[in-house]
Write a structure and sequence with these properties.
alpha+beta; 14 strands; 294 residues; homodimer; eight-stranded mixed sheet; D-amino Acid Aminotransferase, Chain A, domain 2
Chain lengths: 294, 294
């Protein structure tokens, strides 16, 4: 994977309306020194982020990603991002994207410790090759996220609904899943309900009905899942947000992990137990997800 | 608070023995660009850290801090740090410390995404003025950490015993405590046991007996608490590691938050209920903690 492009963004207040934000966007070398050692992103994982897929230069679902960036910022008491400015930064980066699939990452940090303002930047990189995950599927291991289903709503300081830079646990869960012979993890509550994967949403199919765990305070609302549900509804399928017991992982006739860059990865095994992959249907889903979407 | 000094460390394998690591330590401008935007510390809070107090140029408890850095690295599947190299870096930084109190921060990151090796750096900065916390004390709010006491041991991927860079929740808890009119938080389990503060250990006094929550997989073993217990034992007091129910916060005749830079901060209130501060005894503790310690 190669870094293609990076911008440092000088955040402006959310209520500032301008036609041109280019003087607030500084192109930098993605392989050169850029951030100060005191940046709170690096010191404490204190900030929020989004990852967008880019297909043939088209950034996917810009609106939903920016809405979630603003939502995460609010949960973390960060200043409200100026979404017009972020949109300008995304457009600037997308213009640099090569043909094929890329990733744009947006990062909003609390700033340099004792500094006056947040820091922000954007990167553009080649997407990893996800062909195998999309066709052969991913084996998942269910891992306890440590809390009961009712915790996030009563303990908002746990930031469980925010996409923060504090992803060490998410990365550790993926390593643990690999130790168990799987490819990815799915977090479950300590009282036995399905949450989400460390970097993806989960969707289960029961006949013509598609279910995903309710995106309450405990999980992120997946932008790819949202887009896919709209597509499925248009095709006449039923979709639902529900409290999903762990036993449903085995009961579902098919299941997918959904994320902005890997897109729809069919689940081929749960804790070592094989699960049927609907290859033809998965190909249709990924064809949709690779089409230009806003 | 001013940044005084920074070093970028080029990590060498833990088994390399050398008399001189200076060619692996590059002095940098702490206020200038240093880290790449792809560094996983900044992208995902993926790394570990330590903060050491420095008093009149003497770095405190270097051995225990380095031992904990290595322990955290192990829990996060990071390469074992070369402690001789880190010690050389600390010595180099301590030589730049002014009179009075400073902070040395050690950061070991998983490195640049898709890069070959970890990245590491060290900063030296003036310590904040902690006089008021040490004399008047800190009001604390008890906040649910969301998990039951038995969770950390059975879910090591939650990294609850590692000092990772993913501190967004710790920072959010302090903000929540301030919203509640307190100065700091103390985390408690969802089943009602005391854990630790977001950036400190807690010690409770019952007569001549000092108790701190058992540092199992769920909390860090505080270096300052360790040092203080040794001191208290030398003075003839009894010390103990125990499972501490939340009700003990009120029952203790005195209590302190202990950390490497703020040192002993007496707890003056718990959830709005005043607690007696033993000023003379606290002054003695801080006099000890400000003396040169290794």
């Amino acid at each position: 994977m190669a870094w293609r492009f990076a911008l440092v963004i000088d955040p402006v207040a959310s209520d500032i309306r301008r036609d041109d934000f280019s003087d607030t966007l500084a192109v930098i070398d993605p392989d050169g020194p850029a951030l100060r050692v005191g940046d709170l992103s690096a010191q404490r994982g204190d900030g929020v982020f989004e990852s967008l897929g880019v297909v043939d230069g088209h950034p996917q679902e810009v609106g939903p990603h920016l809405a979630r960036l603003a939502h995460s910022a609010g949960l973390c008491d960060l200043p409200e991002p100026n979404l017009d400015q972020w949109r300008a930064a995304i457009d600037r980066a997308a213009a640099e994207a090569p043909a094929g699939e890329s990733v744009i990452k947006l990062i909003l940090s609390r700033g340099v410790e004792h500094g006056p303002a947040p820091t922000a930047w954007l990167t553009l990189a080649d997407a990893p090759d996800n062909a195998r995950s999309r066709t052969e599927g991913v084996r998942i291991a269910a891992l306890d996220r440590g809390y009961a289903l009712d915790v996030p709503a009563r303990a908002p300081w746990l930031l469980l609904g925010a996409k923060t830079l504090s992803y060490a646990v998410n990365m550790a869960a993926i390593r643990e899943a690999k130790r168990r012979g799987a490819d990815d993890a799915v977090f479950v509550t300590s009282d036995g309900f399905v949450l989400e994967a460390p970097t993806a949403s989960i969707v289960l199919r029961f006949g013509g009905r598609f279910v995903t765990p309710t995106p309450n305070a405990g999980i992120l609302h997946g932008t790819t899942q949202l887009s896919l549900f709209a597509h499925l509804e248009q095709r006449g399928f039923e979709t639902a947000y529900e409290t999903v017991p762990v036993s449903d992982l085995g009961r579902a006739d098919a299941a997918w992990l959904l994320s902005s860059v890997r897109l729809a990865a069919p689940i081929s095994a749960v804790d070592g137990e094989a699960k049927a992959v609907d290859h033809a249907f998965t190909d249709e889903l990924n064809a949709y997800l690779l089409s230009p979407r806003d």
